Amino acid sequence: MATIRKRDSKWQVQVRRSGHRGISRSFVLRKDAIAWAREMEVRADRSEFPVDTTELNRLTLADIVLRYRDTVSIRKRGYAVE
After folding, report:
1. pLDDT by residue (tens digit) across 13-60?
2. Three-state DSSP class for residue 14
3. CB 50 within 8 A of CB 17
4. What does the CA dihedral 22, 23, 28, 29 come to, rounded to 10 degrees?
5. What ranges make up the beta strands (E) of 1-82?
6. What global pTM score does this model have?
7. Phi, psi angles (nearest 5°) of residue 78
8. Where are the domains of the chain?
9. Three-class secondary structure of residue 77 per DSSP
């Protein structure tokens, strides 16, 4: 759910979802803030929300290769050779 609040003469919107980084933006008109909040909530529900990149910084190349081996490679015909 989006949080909309008045800050000075502008309206600030914050949209947060579990597992994602929150995003915020400021607007002059409240109706623009509400429309943007709805748009971002729809994107979040469709999993089009911006991805939290801090998780990617913790991965190593070895982790990625092992995950590929265990999930993608086993479905190929040449699994034993690969």
Report:
1. 999 887 777 889 999 999 999 999 999 888 888 877 666 667 778 889
2. strand
3. no
4. -70
5. 2-7, 10-15, 23-27
6. 0.57
7. -90, 30
8. 2-75
9. coil
